[in-house]
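Issue 218. Parser rejects a valid record. Input:
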Amino acid sequence: MSDRLANDLRDKRTAKGWTQADLAERVGVSRKTINTVENGVFVPSTVLALKLAATLGEPVEALFRLET
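Output the parser choked on:
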C-alpha cells in the first residue's frame, strides 16, 4: 500500500494572507514544521492536524486527504 497524505495547507494559509511563520505562531510550532507539513515531508500528528484545521477555520478534511 502506497497511500500518501496530501494537503492543501499552503493554499488555505495563503488565502488568509498568512506566512508560514504567522501560522506557526498561531498553532505553537516552528515555521519549519509548517514548511515540512506543507511539502509532504512530515505527516502531522492528529493533534497538530486538528490545531491547524481549527486555526484556519477549516474542517480537517479540507486540509488533508489520502492519495493512492
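Fixed in the parser; the record now loads. The CA atoms of residues 43 and 59 lie 17 Å apart.
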